[in-house]
Amino acid sequence: MGRGWFLFEIIYFIQLLLVLAVIGAAAGELTGATFGLPPIMGTLALMALIGILTFNGSQLIKRVLAGWSILLYAVYIILFVLAYKALGGDISETYNQASLGEGWISSGILYSGYNLAVVPAILFAITEHKRRRETIGAGLIAGAIAVIPAMLFFVAMMGKYSEIGAQPVPASFLMSALDIRWLELVFQVVIFGTFVETGAAMLHAVNQRIETSFIERKKVMPRIARPIVAITFLAIAIYAGQAFGIVNLIASGYGILTLAFITVLVLPLLTIGLWKIINNKVAQ
């Protein structure tokens, strides 16, 4: 990116606030729908857990990310099997009857571009890689781990295709349709934990950037500053989520940010970045 590096920083902070606002609002929706508690309780619990993770730093966050991913995978597989058993006819009818429509290629590109924007934020997870093939292998595995549960969940949602798109939290709507209470409880807990690890990872990246500034000045970043930074961002984002609503935030914010990330990150990486990697003589 050269001298344009600061553009990514600006867009990332905007994305961070948007994601935190969405997961904060969604956490409140889940808490209210599942346990009948005021939505603010779920939001506050989310803030507290993210603060704890960011306070303890990279090692704990990496262990939580890895362990929770295994649990998430298992729950998604169970959800897919039970959803197909209960709504298999509706799922098949959706794929047989629904029109293909337009814009699916561009939507896929936009979705991919938006998600690739978090790559710089999770580089702390691969600091121990010493060889190029380790990183390439990790990337391929991570891609599969991320995409397969998403595909299973997408297929399961097709059982309620005509209604689910307008729901603030589609997972909650699908759980209600299946009417399997134990699965709903387990799934909501897992999704809530996923919100926590998403927010913690993105906020940890901000803390890492701040810590680097301290190191460059030969100083030590106070440990207590980590949760303070996290809670401050969360408070601002959650206020925005309450003010504008989760559906409006997703509809108005994600598309614009995606185009910005494709411009300042994805295209430079796939052109200049790829050329530099190929021509860099490092250990294979």
Coarse morphology? globular
Query: How many extended strands?
Result: 0
Rounded to the nearest angstrom, the distance between the terminal CA atoms is 25 Å
- Succession of helices and strands: HHHHHHHHHH
Description:
With 284 residues, this protein is an all-alpha fold. The protein has a domain at 2-69 and 111-130 and 180-279. The chain contains 10 helices and no strands. It has helices at 5-35, 39-56, 58-97, 104-116, 132-157, 161-164, 170-178, 181-216, 225-244, 246-279. The model has no long low-confidence stretch (mean pLDDT 81).
Brief digest:
With 284 residues, this protein is mainly α. It has helices spanning 5-35, 39-56, 58-97, 104-116, 132-157, 161-164, 170-178, 181-216, 225-244, 246-279. It is globular and about 60 Å long.
SSE blueprint and pairings:
Blueprint: H1 5-35, H2 39-56, H3 58-97, H4 104-116, H5 132-157, H6 161-164, H7 170-178, H8 181-216, H9 225-244, H10 246-279
Helix pairs in contact: 1-2, 1-8, 1-9, 1-10, 2-8, 2-9, 3-5, 3-8, 4-10, 7-8, 8-9
